[in-house]
């Protein structure tokens, strides 16, 4: 017995819509996997639900997805992203490189992995550490001055309150 045809239109009941979405999503992913295995095809599938949740399938590693997109661009003549997005990708790559460099520099500042540094780099590292230490000492000195000032103010307030207490006791007598 075959299945009955359904009318293709939006399902109004949200519960039924979610169940149908889940089943059809799993079905299309299954079909994508099957066509990959059976026909040795390269498949990249992206599904974004109405909730914003994204599901993706790619027949190979991340590089394969990029090759599939590049092939799509070259054969269809359509670009999925414009120069602005290319610039953003380049910016992300640049920031990642900067981050890697900063991670290495941080390890060096912590005293880790400094055997690979030459004499000039070690001198620059020493200067950076000395500057940092001077900055810390300066902040500590300012903090201690503030603590001393606060102590003086508290002592003055204590004396004033003690004087008021003695005055009020003398007035009562």
Can you put this structure into words, describing what you see?
Helix content is 71%, strand content 6%. It is mainly α. It contains four helices and two strands. A two-stranded antiparallel sheet has the order 1-2. The protein starts with 13 loop residues before the first helix and ends with a helix.
How do the strands and helices of this protein lay out in sequence?
Layout: H1 14-39, E1 44-48, E2 54-58, H2 62-76, H3 83-109, H4 119-172
Antiparallel strand pairs: 1-2
Tell me the strand percentage band.
Answer: 5-15%
**Low-confidence parts, pLDDT < 50 over ≥5 residues?**
none
Helix/strand-derived category reads mainly alpha
Overall 3D form: elongated
Please write the string of helix (H) and strand (E) elements.
HEEHHH
Which sequence of strands runs across the widest sheet? 1-2
Helical segment count: 4
Overall average pLDDT: 88
Radius of gyration: 35 Å
* Record field, number of beta strands: 2
The portion of residues assigned to helices is over 70%
The major beta sheet can be summarized as:
2 strands, antiparallel
Beginning-to-end CA distance, first to last residue:
110 Å
